[in-house]
Write a structure and sequence with these properties.
The structure holds two protein chains of two kinds. By secondary structure, chain A is an all-alpha fold. Helices cover 71% and strands 0% of the residues of chain A. Chain A contains 13 helices and no strands. Chain B has four domains: 40 residues, no CATH class; 178 residues, Orthogonal Bundle (MetI-like fold), CATH 1.10.3720; 158 residues, D-Maltodextrin-Binding Protein, domain 2; 130 residues, Periplasmic binding protein-like II (D-Maltodextrin-Binding Protein, domain 2, 3-Layer(aba) Sandwich). Classes of the chains: A mainly alpha, B alpha/beta.
């Protein structure tokens, strides 16, 4: 193939030039600016102070909270999405694209609007409490509390978990499952020793696709947290937009990137199947 | 496997309800005549009408479409060219480029946004349409590359070689044979970019500037102000549009061809693209008569204004435009603390800003202001002398600041929910009102409440006193329902809370809407504030700004503005025009300051102290 292209035009590799310059200018250099800001002080001297700021009580607390919330919401997403993906893969034969489409359709709604919808549902005098009081049931009061934020994360990111798992499961050859049943495995045994291991690449990429955005969000905590809960994303956002303390904000961004890189490495290890593609590519399919 | 069908169906239905209930709720609420979310006030289409009339949302929508289209188009061209070029590259080099391409997709949006913002500031670029477009192209290219690259592997080389054998030049063969083969992948890359750009909030949030809003950033700032049923109407329209688009793509005869699974998707892509392009063209034509999507600061016939939320009668802006022919670009900030860095860094340029006392002092001391020539603004004679005097506390010679509104900070309470008389800040620490208290989410105001209760000055820099105040606020936190700014108003009107810290100007309006509410300035004292118009140093539309200030200070205009925003006006001639004697002599709007004690204006405490206060406030807010 490559030979063919070479025969066509040796100079065609120049076509990558504009993008190459673009990616250096808008991807590489900006990241180096963040690195530079994170490791230099007010007068340009080298310092580790800003990265070490993460050990401040407030920052550490927010990072811890972000980790806890994103782990919980990832786990909840997995628990909800796996059965859903299995059912979709099973029911879906033939009319699969429409059934799956119905479940990922909410993704096309603006993500802010979806979060705001939950605010309307959960408010003290919101829709859910309106229903509950009409039925003379005790009211539900979780808005501005951690459960509301976890709920927002699960709702916003659930489709990112469903899709890759669904893709992985529907790619499993039915004959493999039938063979397992013929060899005497019961339903649970088949699930755990055949389907689960084979769907693992999908599960892992689903996990990173939910984990990273929930770890770094500041929008969900802002809208559903009533300003009472600061996640690490909120702290970074405020450092940049309110304090205009770019050194401190960059320092914390670097710390945050460490966690992202770790989850990437884990994904890379498992995500052997090339056809599962990369993170956000699958989001909008 | 056919077992448990019932259970499986049940699970599917439960998940469907979970996914769609919020969206359906928004749709139902969009037809609700009542602003309340738990009561049905009858069917109405009013919100749709006011959505269409709301120029801000419509122009944000146009901007979003234009931005998505342009960024997707440029990204598609660059990305496709890059893919073609990469075919002849050495494998190692190609893998390196692909690795770089992955960075924006895998990285957190907040880091990408922040890094681009730093780049634009370092390059001294003015934040606006241009910077957002560059940012969107940057995160869009990877989607194009990842969509087009794999397609190269599936190309049929025989047809290409056959074309060469038949005498076609390589370039001709490429355009006639290879490109049509790549087209489905290129189009799906384009569409993916388009949708990513439409949906982005975080990266736009960091790279946008004055007078620029996409739908996402517009929604975000509207929601911070309070309940806006127009947003529900917008959600409904967007959802219906998506449904329609998908129906077109999947079922319409001219997009539906072969139903062979894998191919079908690609075949349908040109259909979607066609629909989208039509939409863009239609909006492009429409926007010809509306305001331009991207405001250009260099236009000499314009005026850039930066003001707090809901702080002017929007009709007056239109009237001013009609009267003078000047194009007003009007932008809103949530708090002064958010406004300041934007102006200081020069990332956003304005001609007039309306900050409060302490912020004006800070801007003046940091040499960010331009003197205003009072002689060019005859109507300023209507501003009462006592207000000029107050202004001298932060602007000693009245050089920079023109008084606009003033007031106090106090407690708004619901008489049906609070049984005892409210006269002290201490009620905000009463366990009885757990989850019924709304606090201001602004450093100075929150700190002031605690400091005044402790009997200290609101301008203290004494570490021990600040510590005490911080601890007091931390103690209060479990009782607080939410830390909000403009939302206090709607929440109090909607009986969401019993007590809220609010500015006196909101009291008249909220009492009008909900007669159960009352406002009090606690006996321990409070903040008295004066907001003034100032001109930033780099403002260029000086003459237009003077015209605007003159317009605003005309008694009839100032009165109408007061009637709309209900914040006390320093314009004595305008006050005389108030027909309602109760309001004209209201103790809330125009209190007798000689009878109140402990009222203080905030003063600027210095940069380091500001940051210190911010970090104390974060300490309170971190859960």
């Amino acid at each position: 193939m490559r030979k063919l292209w070479q025969s066509m035009n040796k100079k065609s590799s120049l076509l990558s030039g504009p993008y190459l310059i673009w990616s250096i200018g808008f991807i590489i250099i900006p990241l180096f600016i963040v690195l530079f800001e994170a490791f230099t002080g007010e007068n340009g001297q080298f310092t580790l102070q800003y990265v070490a700021d993460i050990t401040w009580f407030v920052n550490l607390k927010s990072l811890g909270l972000s980790l806890v919330f994103s782990l919980i919401s990832t786990a909840v997403c997995l628990l909800l999405a796996y059965p859903l993906a299995m059912i979709l893969a099973e029911f879906g034969k033939g009319r699969s694209s429409i059934t799956v489409l119905v479940f990922i359709l909410p993704m096309w709604m603006n993500s802010l609007l979806r979060t705001i919808a939950w605010q309307n549902l959960l408010e003290r005098h919101g829709v859910i409490n309106g229903f509950l009081s009409a039925l003379h049931l005790p009211s539900l009061y979780i808005i501005n509390k951690p459960p509301a934020i976890v709920l927002g994360m699960v709702y916003d990111f659930l489709p990112f978990m469903v899709l890759p798992i669904y893709n992985a499961i529907s790619r499993i050859d039915r004959d493999v499952i039938n063979a397992a049943r013929d060899l005497g495995a019961n339903g649970i045994k088949t699930l755990f020793s055949v389907i689960w291991p084979m769907s693992l690449p999908g599960v892992i990429s689903g996990i990173t696709m939910v984990f990273v955005p929930s770890l770094t969000t500041f929008v969900i905590s802002d809208i559903l947290g009533g300003g009472k809960i600061l996640l690490i994303g909120n702290i970074i956002e405020q450092m940049f937009t309110q304090d205009s303390d770019w050194h401190a904000g960059s320092g914390l961004s670097i710390v945050l990137m460490i966690f992202i890189v770790i989850s990437m490495i884990i994904e890379e290890k498992y995500d052997a199947a090339p056809s599962t593609g990369t993170k956000k590519e699958r989001r909008k399919k | 496997m056919k077992k448990h069908r019932g259970i499986k169906m049940f699970y599917l239905i439960v998940m469907l309800i979970f996914l769609y209930a919020p969206i359906l709720t928004l749709m139902v609420l969009s037809f609700n005549a009542s602003k309340s979310r738990s009561r049905w006030g009858g069917f109405t289409l009013d919100w749709y009408i006011s959505l269409v009339e709301d120029g801000g949302i419509i122009s944000a929508f146009k901007t979003t479409l234009i931005l998505a289209f342009l960024s997707a188009l440029i990204a598609t061209v660059l990305g496709t060219a890059a893919c073609i070029g990469m075919q002849t590259m050495r494998r190692k080099f190609r893998r390196l480029i692909l690795a770089i391409t992955n960075i924006p997709m895998l990285n957190a949006d907040i880091v990408t946004g922040v890094s681009l913002m730093l780049l634009f500031i370092a390059a001294r670029m003015t934040m606006g349409f241009r910077t957002v477009l560059l940012a969107h192209i940057t995160f869009n290219i990877p989607y194009v590359i990842l969509s087009v690259m794999p397609r190269f592997r599936q190309l049929n080389r025989n047809t290409y070689e056959a074309a060469l054998d038949l005498g076609a030049s390589p370039l001709y063969a490429f355009f006639r044979i290879t490109l049509p083969d790549l087209m489905p992948a290129i189009l799906s890359g384009f569409l993916m970019s388009f949708t990513m750009s439409l949906d982005d909030f975080i990266i736009t949030h960091f790279t946008k500037g004055a007078g620029f809003d996409t739908l996402s950033t517009k929604i975000y700032s509207e929601v911070k102000k309070g309940i806006k049923p127009e947003i529900y109407a917008l959600s409904t329209l967007m959802f219906v549009a998506v449904l329609l688009l998908l129906w077109l793509v999947n079922y319409h005869p001219w997009t539906r061809r072969k139903n062979d699974n894998g191919r079908k998707k690609f075949r349908s892509v040109p259909g979607i693209a066609a629909v989208l392009v039509t939409i863009i063209c239609a909006t492009g034509l429409l926007s010809g008569c509306g305001s331009s999507a991207a405001a250009d600061y260099n236009d000499p016939n314009s005026l850039f204004i930066y003001n707090a939320g809901e702080y002017i009668d929007p009709d007056l802006l239109d009237e001013f435009e009609d009267e003078t022919g000047i194009n007003v670009v009007y932008d809103e900030f949530e708090t002064l603390e958010i406004m300041y860095p934007k102006v200081e860094s020069g990332a956003a340029r304005y001609d007039l800003i309306c900050p409060s006392d302490y912020m004006i002092e800070k801007m003046r001391k940091n040499d960010l202001l331009k003197p205003i020539n009072i002689d060019n603004i005859p109507n300023l004679k209507n501003i009462g002398e006592s207000y000029w005097e107050t202004a001298r506390s932060f602007d000693p010679d009245n050089t920079y600041a023109v008084p606009y509104c003033w007031g106090t900070v106090g407690i708004l309470y619901n008489k049906t929910m609070v049984d005892e008389p409210v006269d002290s800040w201490s009620i905000l620490w009463d366990e009885k009102y757990k989850d019924q208290i709304l606090m201001q989410d602004s450093v100075r105001d929150a700190m002031m409440v605690a400091l005044k209760l402790l009997g200290y000055s609101a301008n203290t820099t004494d570490e021990k006193e600040l510590r005490e105040a911080t601890e007091l606020l931390e103690k209060q936190k479990p009782l607080v329902q939410a830390y909000v700014v403009d939302q206090v108003r709607d929440k109090m009107i909607g009986n969401e809370a019993a007590l809220g810290v609010i500015y006196s100007g909101e009291a008249i309006f909220t009492k009008r809407e909900n007669p159960d509410l009352d406002y009090v300035v606690p006996k321990e004292g409070s903040n008295i504030w004066l907001d003034c118009w100032v001109m930033p140093k780099n403002a260029t539309h000086v003459e237009n700004a003077e015209k605007f200030l003159d317009f605003l200070s005309r008694p009839d205009i100032a009165y109408r503005n007061f009637d709309y925003i209900t914040y006390s006006t320093p314009n004595t001639a305008a006050r005389e025009l108030i027909p309602d004697e109760d309001i004209k002599n209201s103790n809330i709007a125009f209190p007798d300051l000689t009878k109140m004690s402990g009222l203080e204006t905030y003063s600027f405490l210095g940069e380091a102290e500001d940051r210190h206060l911010n970090s104390l406030w974060r300490e309170v807010k971190a859960y």
